[in-house]
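Sequence, C-alpha cells quoted for completeness.
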Amino acid sequence: MPPVQVNGPPVSAECGLSFTVLGPLRAWRGATPLDLGPVRQQALLTALLLRPDVTVSRQQLLDAVWGEEPPGTGLKVVPSYVYRVRKSLGGDPVISGDRGGYRFHGDRVRVDSVLLEDFAAQARAAQRAGDLAAAVELCAAALALFAGEPLAGLPGPFVAGQRRRWTERRIALAQQKAEWELRLGRHAEAVEELSTLLAAHPDNETLAALLMRALHDGGRRADALAVYAELRHRLVEELGVEPGAETRRAQQAVLLGEDAAPRATVQRGTARDELPADVGDLVGRDRELALLTASAGGAAVTVDAVDGVAGSGKTALAVTAARALRAERSGGCLFVDLHGHSEVRDALAPQRVLRRLLRAVGVDDSAIPDDLDELAAWWRSATIPLRLLLILDDASSSEQVRPLLPAGAGSSVLVTSRRRLTGLDVRRRISLGPLDVDAAQGLLGGIVGTPSTDRERAAARELARLCGRLPLALRIAGARLQHRPMWTLEDLVSRLSDDGARLGELTAGDRSVEAAFRLSYQRIPGIEQRAFRALSRAPSAELDRLAMAAMLDCPPAQAGQVLENLVDANLVQQPAVDRYRLHDLVAVFARRLAAEHQSETAAADVRLLELHLTAARRAVDWKRARRPDERCSRATPFSGVRDAVEWLNSAGDLSDVVSHAVATGNVDHACLIAEAGVDYLLRRGRVHECRAVVEIALEHLADAGERRMVAALRFWLGCVELVQGRQEQARCCFRDALHAARNLGDRWEESRALGALGVVAGLTGAKDEAVDALSEALEAAVELGDDWLIERADSYLGYLQHVDQRHDEALERFERIHALGEKLGSAAMMARALCYSGSVHLVVGRFGEAVTALRQAVDSAEELGDLVLYAGSLSRLGSAEYELGDPAGALDSQRRALEAFPADGPGSVELEMHQRLAETCLREGRRNEAQEHFRSALTLADLTGTTDSIGGLREVFL
C-alpha cells in the first residue's frame, strides 16, 4: 500500500503544486508550503480548484464565495481576487482567464481528494478480486487523508456544499471498511471505529446497524441491544419516528442469535434474454455505440447512462449495444421499461421492479420481502454470482435506478432516460442530440428509399431539417410516406413547413412527436414550464440566466437553476456555459405552448426588452440631463459599463431584439433600444448591424408614442452614415434631425444635431461653418446644463483648434474635458480626452507625454470594451514608442491594434492604422510588410473617398 502523508503535500517533493482539501485548505510547491491569504481568497481558489478544466464565470464565482451577500463592488471584485490567488501560487499559470471566466488546469496539480478516490477505487477492485484484507488497508489509507473537517473555516455556499459532500463520503468509506472488517472477523477493530463514528453522527441508522452486527458477532449481545435501545429512544423522543427496516432487522438478528446480513436463495435456471426486437435499426450513432460496447477492463459492475431529448433514439442505442454485449454475460440479459415518461402508466416503483428482477433470476417469489431496503439487499445478494446485463429503459430519476443496480462482478447496466441522471455514479454518460445531416438523410432513405434526383435530394435535406434530425420524427415522416405512395417528399415538406401544423403532421398511429415532448414537459415543475415557454419567445437563438431572470421576474440565481434543471430534463440545450437554447423541433412545441399563455408571454417580452434597454444604456457612460425616459422601470443588474458591454456582446444581434420588439407590438421599446444601442455598436465597430437597428426602428416610427424619436433616430442614422464616410448623406440626416427637433421644441436634440452638423462641416473643410455650428451647440448645452453635450461639442472644437495649429489651446480644452470626466465619474470621457491629448502631443513632438496619455487611453478603452478607441489609441501609441527608440514595441503595438480592430469598424480609422504601421515597417527596413499595409490603406482610401490622406507613402510605393 502506498504511504499516506497526513501532515504534508499529497505528492512527492519533486512535484509542482499540490493541495489538501480534506481538512484545512493547504498548498505546497514541491515541499514548500504556500501562504494562500485570507479566507475569502481561499474560498475563491477552492471554487476553481474543485472544478478543474471547466470555465467558471465571474458570476458563478461571486455566487460560490459570497452567496446572497455579494460585496458592494459586485463582479468587479472577482478579477482582483483571482489576481491575488495567482500571486499566492507564485504566478504559476495554473489559472487561465478568457471572456467566459476563469479555468483551473487540473492536470498541473495534485489534490488529496483525487488521491482519496484513487484509494477508494483500488479498494473496490481488491474487494471484487476477493482480497478483503487489501481492500480494508486501502480504505484505511483513504480515510487517513482526512485531517479534520474538510475545508475548515472557509466561507461560502460552494465550500459548504463540498464540506457536506466529503463528510458524507467519509462516513460511506468508514461504513464500507467496517462491512469488510466484519466479513474478515475483525469485530474489535470494527467496534472501535464504528463507536467513534456513531458518536459523531448519532442519528445514522446504517452506522448503528453495523455497530450492532459487530457487537453481536463479537459476542456482545447486550451491548448490541443497548445501541438499538439508545437509537430508538433518540429517534422517538426527538423526531417522533421509529427506526427503519435495516436497524429493526439487525435487532431481530441479535434477539434470535442469527446473522443480520441479508441473504437471498436463488434457484438457478436458464439465463434469460429479454431484449426487445422492435426498436428499429440504429443509424448515425457509431461513436456512441463504440463507447457503450468498449470493454470495462476489469471485474467491476459498470453502469452507463444514455440521456437525450424525446425521440433521439436512446432505447435503440441501448438495445443495439446490449445485443453486442450479451454474449459475454453468462448471467443473462434483462430489460425493464421503467415507464419514466409514459402516457398511460405511472413510473414503476423500485419495489415492483426489484420483485420482478428477483423472480427473473430465480428467487422464490414467496420468500421475497416487501421493504425497499430489504429488496435491494436481496437483489445484490442474488446477483453476486451472476455476470448480468441489465437494461433499465426510460428511468424517471436516479432514485428510481439506484436500488436496482446488481452486485455481480463483471455485470453491466445500461440506463436510458430523458433526464440527465446526475445523481447516479456512472462509467460513461452519453447525451444524444439530433443526428448529423448525412445520418438523418440516411435514416429517411432507409425507410422510403434513396432520392434519385437533385430535386428529391434537396427535399430530403429539407425534410430532415424540419424533423429536427430526430430519429422519432424521421421515422414517423418515413412511415407517413410509406402509407401514402402518392405523396412526394416535397408534398410532406410543404405540409411540415407551417409551424402550426408541423407537430400534428408528425404523428403515426400511437407514435407522436408532440405527445413525446408533452410528457417531458408535464413532468417538470410550474416555474420550469414557464421558463420553457419563455425560451421560445427569446429574440435570439440563445439566452443566459440574466435574460431568463427578467422573463420570469425572479433572481438570476433562481433562473440559472431553473435553466440547468431544463438541461437535465433534456428540454433545453446548453451549447456553452450559461448559454441556453431550444432544439428546433422542441422550439415549435414551446411556441405553441406560449401562444396558449398570451398575457404571461406579453409581460415576459416587455421585461426582456427592458433588460436590453437597461444594458444598452448602461453600456455607454453618456447620459441626457433631466430626461425621465433615461430611467428604466427596473433596477439595473449591471455593475458598470464593462459588465453591460460583456452581457450585450454575448446576447446576440441587437437588430434581432429591435425586430422582436416591433413584431410583439412594442414599438416604443424598439425605438428606445435602437437609440440606446447605436453608441454601443459604433464603438465596437458593428456598423452594418447598427444601420439595421436604426432603419428597423425608423420604418415603424409612425407607430411610436415617443415623438422625440423623430429627431433622435435621424440623428443616429446620420452618425452611421458619417462613420461609413458618406458625409453628404450624414449632413442630410442631421439637417432632418435639427428640423424635427425645432418643430418639437426640443432644445436638447437641437443642440446635438447642431454639433453633428459642425462635425460634418469640419470634415469637409468648412471650418468657419463648423465653428459656428459647434459654438451654437455648445451654447445650448451650457444653457441646458448638460455636461455630456458640452463634452461632445467641446471635443470637436478642440480638434479644430489642433488642425488650425493652435495646439496648446486644444490641449487646454482636452484637459478641461478630462477634468469634467473625473467630475462625472465617466471613464469613457476621460479615455477619449487622453487619446485626444496624446494625439496632439504626438504631432508636436512631445513623445514622452504622448506615450503616457495614450497608454492610459489604451488601458481605459480595453477595460471599457471600446474596440475602436482601443485600436486607434494603441496604433498612435506605437508611433510614439517608435520615436522614443523602441521599434520592437512600436511594431507590436501597431500590429495588435490591427488585430483588435473590428472587421466592420470605421474605414477611416483602419486606414490610419495601416498607414502608421506601413510607415513604421518602412523605417525599419521591412519593405514588403510596409507595401502590404500601404496597399490596404490605399484600398480603404478608395472606399472612403479619401485618397489624399495616404500622404508621402504614395510617392514611395507608386
Observations:
- Residues 1-7, 625-633 have pLDDT under 50 and may be disordered.
